[in-house]
Amino acid sequence: MGNANKPPNVTGEDVQILTIAISSRALFDLRESHELFERQGLEAYHDYQVRNEDVILEPGVAFPLARKLLALNEDHVRHPRVEIILLSRNSADTGLRIFNTIEHFGLNVERMAFTNGESPYKYMEAFGADLLLSTNARDVSQALAKGYAAATILPGSAAGDGDGQLRIAFDGDAVIFSDEAERVFQERGLEEFHSSERDAANQPLSGGPFKGVLEALHKIQSAFPIENNPIRTALVTARSAPAHKRVVLTLREWGIRIDEALFLGGREKGEFLKAFGADIFFDDQQVHIESAKQHVASAHVPHGIRNAVK
Question: Is the pTM of this model over 0.85?
């Protein structure tokens, strides 16, 4: 992962702990202009964006998340804990409306890439990005294939609890952890899965694509008191006892604190994520995303055996 091993920025002298690349269509509501592009083509899109460049865009599904992430830098302005990079398939010309919207909302986003139709994910390494949030599933899949954390953020509710605390929820297998246990379940069934997890309870799981993101969030949390922390994390998994033990011991082995762990035993996740007040939820399975996105901003991680091309 690009910057997953950056040191904690506790002293105010270190570089960012977490660098997140967000696409313009995730950050702002560009549905109207995108639909115009699909109907009438690039020239009509260009004319529309230039004609409306002083019309402020509405926030997109990732906007509340971005604002809370940037708020983590309020006492670290010179050496921010989190940086957001804007990636856009617009040209600089059509992207002027996006510039104006960023300025209007006072978002401290300074680094951007406008690629005029080409995939902007290729600049993740140059920017030192750790995570890509995009509405473009192809870009997300390519970023994951190169070892980055990446997720396709989907239209839906952008709930959050509104109190300023950043709340992020993750699925376990194929997201925080590898899909090794999920492969046993898919290939050999539930009984063999439970048997395998009991036998391997004291053997830590390998890391998945979002291990580094969780580590970075944990490092930022460590700069604040537990009882008054600007970040709260949750593991929301379909696992149940006895398969929970290996998960708990893996996090302990990694030295990562997760604030809440919900072992749902196959229950739908949406209502639980609503109760947690997640600003965003990451899961590798579309069925869980469908449940979640009715209540919270949700992002699909197309990784692991559940997403293997058949």
Answer: yes
**Torsional class of 106: left (φ above 0), alpha (ψ -120 to 50), beta (otherwise):** left
The tokens for 27 are 């950050």
Residues, the chain: 310
Comparing CA positions, the residue from 223, 280, 212 lying closest to residue 80 is 223
Could you give the 3-state DSSP secondary structure of residue 152? Answer: strand
Q: Residue 62 corresponds to which tokens in the numbers above?
A: 């990732």
Tell whether domain 18-153 is in CATH 3.40.50.300.
Answer: no
**Which tens digits make up the pLDDT trace of 197-227?**
777 777 889 899 999 999 999 999 998 888 8
Q: For residues 241 and 181, is the Cβ–Cβ distance under 8 A?
A: no
Q: Supply the pLDDT for residue 181.
A: 77
The dihedral sign for the CA sequence 195, 171, 232, 123: positive
The residue type at 148: Y
Of 162-166, 173-177, 273-277, the least confident: 162-166
| 130, 139, 171, 283: the active-site residue | 171
**Beta strands 298-300; 149-154: pairing state:** antiparallel
How far apart CA 14 and CA 162 sit, in angstroms, is 30
Beta bridge partners of 295: none
Domain with CATH 3.40.50.1000 in the chain: 18-153, 166-307
Q: DSSP class of residue 310? A: -
- DSSP for 33-48, please give it: HHHHHHHH-HHHHHHH
Query: Could you say which architecture CATH assigns to the domain 166-307?
Result: 3-Layer(aba) Sandwich (3.40)
Closest C-alpha to 143, from 130, 153, 161, 155: 130
Whether omega before 242 lies within 30 degrees of 0, making that bond cis, reads: yes
Is 259 noted as a catalytic residue in this protein? no
Contact 143, 132 (CB under 8 A): yes
